[in-house]
């Protein structure tokens, strides 16, 4: 997807990424599905010497001490919250489109296409957004937004003059599009920060489980 259009509509960033992520049968969502470290297998635990297990436990404990996070449930709630804040700004494009059409004097099929996109987006927001009560429920909603944004990006190829004016205004914080772009960037940064915190939260869980499993194996050896 053309990066210049990402610049025109920064809201495309997460939506288009999500669209690509869902293109092959719902693989991981780039913001919601955070990879977790794999645990040591039972075979690996039992095949490691006691001294090596004790050394590995010390490493895990040091890593755990260096991480200070809230419970993962709270971190997941925070990520959902900031995703919805970001999305609330992203869907302001619903109100921006009519103003943009008037400001740039868009006519003909491009005007009709943009208004059709607006109508589709309104329907998605009305039908699906109220159902977004968890990170997993955010994923299909975000996918639908991504499909609509992808359609709009295709539409914007039709009139380069309009697109170029929008690119210019998007860089100017004094313009409607510039203000929208700035707010999107700010809210998206909050999403990235919340995702990083949740990733640390998951790492904490994994480290605790690794330590518990090593302790169990060491205890088993002492008792045998």
Secondary-structure topology with pairs:
Elements: H1 3-8, H2 12-21, H3 42-46, H4 50-65, H5 72-90, H6 93-103, H7 108-128, H8 135-155, H9 160-170, H10 176-223
CATH class: Mainly Alpha
* Helical amount: over 70%
Oligomer: single chain
How much strand? under 5%
What is the first-to-last residue Cα distance?
A: 61 Å
Number of discrete domains: 1
Assigned CATH architecture: Up-down Bundle
Rg = 24 Å
Structural class: mainly alpha
Q: Average pLDDT, to the nearest integer?
A: 85
**Main sheet makeup:** none
Counting H and I runs of at least 4 residues, what is the number of helices?
10
Number of DSSP-assigned strands = 0
Keywords:
single chain, about 220 residues, mainly alpha, Four Helix Bundle (Hemerythrin (Met), subunit A), about 75% helix, elongated, disordered N terminus
Give structural notes.
This protein has 10 helices and no strands. With 224 residues, the protein is mainly α. Helix 2 (12-21) crosses helix 8 and helix 7 packs antiparallel against helix 8 (135-155). The relative contact order is 0.19. The model is unreliable at 1-7 (pLDDT under 50).
Brief overview:
The protein is an all-alpha fold. It has helices at residues 3-8, 12-21, 42-46, 50-65, 72-90, 93-103, 108-128, 135-155, 160-170, 176-223.
């Amino acid at each position: 997807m053309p990066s210049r259009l990402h610049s025109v509509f920064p809201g495309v960033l997460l939506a288009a990424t999500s669209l690509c992520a869902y293109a092959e049968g719902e693989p991981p969502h780039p913001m919601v599905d955070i990879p977790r470290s794999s645990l040591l297998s039972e075979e690996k635990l039992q095949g490691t010497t006691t001294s090596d297990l004790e050394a590995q436990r010390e490493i895990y404990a040091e890593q755990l001490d260096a991480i200070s996070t809230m419970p993962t449930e709270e971190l997941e709630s925070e990520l959902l919250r900031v995703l919805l804040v970001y999305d609330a700004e992203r869907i302001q494009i619903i109100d921006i489109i009519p103003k943009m059409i008037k400001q740039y004097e868009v006519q003909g099929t491009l005007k009709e296409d943009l208004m059709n996109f607006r109508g589709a987006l309104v329907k998605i927001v009305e039908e699906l957004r109220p159902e977004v009560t968890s990170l997993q429920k955010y994923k299909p909603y975000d996918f639908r937004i991504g499909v609509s944004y992808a359609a709009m990006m295709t539409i914007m190829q039709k009139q380069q003059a309009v697109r170029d004016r929008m690119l210019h205004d998007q860089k100017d914080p004094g313009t409607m599009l510039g203000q929208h772009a700035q707010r999107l960037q700010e809210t998206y940064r909050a999403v990235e920060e919340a995702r990083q915190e949740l990733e640390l939260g998951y790492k904490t869980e994994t480290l605790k489980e690794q330590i518990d499993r090593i302790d169990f194996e060491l205890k088993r050896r002492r008792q045998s």
